[in-house]
Amino acid sequence: MTLTSFDPSHFLIMVVDDTPPNLKVMGSILESVGYKTTFAISGQQVLDRLATLKPDLILLDWMMPEMDGLEVCQKLQRHPDYSHIPIIFLTARQDRESCVQAFNSGAVDYITKPFNRSELLARVRTHLRLKDLSDRLQKSLTEVEILARTDSLTGILNRRSLFEFAAAEFQRAHRYDVIFSVIIFDVDHFKTVNDRYGHLIGDVVLKVIAAKVQSQLRSLDGFGRYGGEEFVIVLPESNLTAAATLGNRLCTSLSTLKLPDLDPAPQITASFGVATYTATDHSIDDLFSRADQALYYAKQAGRNCCYANITHPTSHHLNCTQLAQDCH
């Protein structure tokens, strides 16, 4: 992470004081070096204005009627949307106890009146740089977390994150006796696509398929790349009928997928296997195994169709059935 040049015009500072002449003086000092400013004359007005404004720093007077600065600071620290805003107290109080109170309430700094202009600007600049650095660090950490969880090619969950999602859903189903289902699907004859068009085009096909499927899922569903051209969908609170209906809809949707930039364009189809959690499942592997077996049936039946495992296995043979017509 590189340090960027400091530009005051990028920052909005809220000045809070119940005395208008003080606001004018503070505004003049801050605006003279390029800061954008906004003002509030009471604690309640601070809370009201924060509903629409997002200041980067608050200069807060301590002594105000009805709601003093200490109470305002404590309210902001308890609010998840405002607790990240640095607060600098401006007050005539100079005793150590007041200083401790200010920091304990969540303030980042404390300036006594009458203040020195250069000191004020230096402290404001320091805390804005720290906030900017913290914001960029948090953004980078979020990006790293996303990269660690997603498949680099398709942008959906990678194999590890997919299994974590599925395992968590299995534990939830086991603990609270709720239902969920799994769909495993595999792109038909994908090797032929790679052999004929090359692996770069094969990658494009996988990305297009992932985007098409993702657009038809709910926000609570888990969707990830199982490996190669194989994908898995985890469907919380979905029974076998709902999951099979989705599988058939996706099967049809992919069979009509067009890649207009290729001539002749490859015919894209996929085969789907569906299974639903039962109370006798010992782990998520049991559910994946049944869905995988249903996928095998779909492949054996000629591909481009959806099969579902409708019973829990009592032997090596699974009872699978095609719940809809082929997606041709």
Keywords:
alpha/beta; 6-stranded mixed β-sheet; 5-stranded parallel β-sheet
Outline the structure in words.
This protein is α/β, with parallel strands linked by helices. Helix content is 45%, strand content 18%. The protein is built from ten helices and eleven strands. The strands form two sheets. A six-stranded mixed beta sheet has the order 7-8-6-9-10-11. A five-stranded parallel beta sheet has the order 2-1-3-4-5, with helices on both faces. It is elongated and about 85 Å long. The two termini are 52 Å apart. Residues 313-318 and 324-328 have low confidence and may be disordered.
Oligomeric status: single chain
Computed over alpha carbons, the radius of gyration is: 30 Å
In order across it, which strands form the biggest sheet?
7-8-6-9-10-11
Shape: elongated
The DSSP helix count reads 10
Runs with pLDDT <50, length 5+?
313-318, 324-328
Record the SSE blueprint:
Layout: E1 12-16, H1 20-32, E2 36-40, H2 43-49, E3 57-61, H3 69-78, E4 87-91, H4 96-104, E5 109-112, H5 117-149, H6 159-176, E6 180-187, H7 190-197, H8 199-214, E7 222-227, E8 230-236, H9 240-255, E9 270-276, H10 284-300, E10 306-309, E11 320-322
Parallel strand pairs: 1-2, 1-3, 3-4, 4-5, 9-10
Antiparallel strand pairs: 6-8, 6-9, 7-8, 10-11
Helix pairs in contact: 2-3, 7-8
Compose a concise summary of this entry.
The protein is an alpha/beta fold. Helices cover 45% and strands 18% of the residues. Strand 3, helix 3 and strand 4 form a beta-alpha-beta unit.
